[in-house]
Design brief:
- The protein contains two helices and eleven strands; from the N terminus they run E-E-E-H-E-E-E-E-E-E-E-E-H.
- By secondary structure, it is mainly beta.
- The chain has a single domain, classed as Alpha-Beta Complex (glutathione-dependent formaldehyde- activating enzyme (gfa)), CATH 3.90.1590.10.
- Strands 6-7-8-9-4-3-10-11 form an eight-stranded mixed β-sheet.
- A hairpin with a 6-residue loop joins strand 1 and strand 2.
- The two termini are 23 Å apart.
- The model has no long low-confidence stretch (mean pLDDT 91).
- Keywords: Lyase, Metal-binding, Zinc.
Length: 137
Amino acid sequence: MASGSCACNYIGYTASTPPTCLVNCHCTTCRKQAGAPYQTWAFFATDDIRWHVSPTERQATQAATRTFCPKCGSTLSMLLHRDPKSIGIAAGTLDEEKTKIPLPSHHIFLSEKASWFELPEGDGTKKWDKWGEYEKL
């Protein structure tokens, strides 16, 4: 089982399985939303996530709907319209002591990477520049 919550604990969630993978996304939308060089997403089957309180939805781009806590503003999830059976949960919201969390497996959208951030060498991740490559995940 996996669990997590927003920063103020108003919105929590559980999942019946651990995440299938972690992906570091360097797209401009993720960077701006995270306020960091990338956003790490933990992917689950959408049907495995149970929200204790439903988060607020926002149509972030034509490709995805994102959710957040209306009280503290924490980023919670991203649902890609092309793959409604999979949901990305903001990895920083996971309860580490209750969730088996894998190491990140991919860096995606490197064509939009922050110029001031250097990727670590030899971390074993796959590295993709754009969307078309990511669709093969």
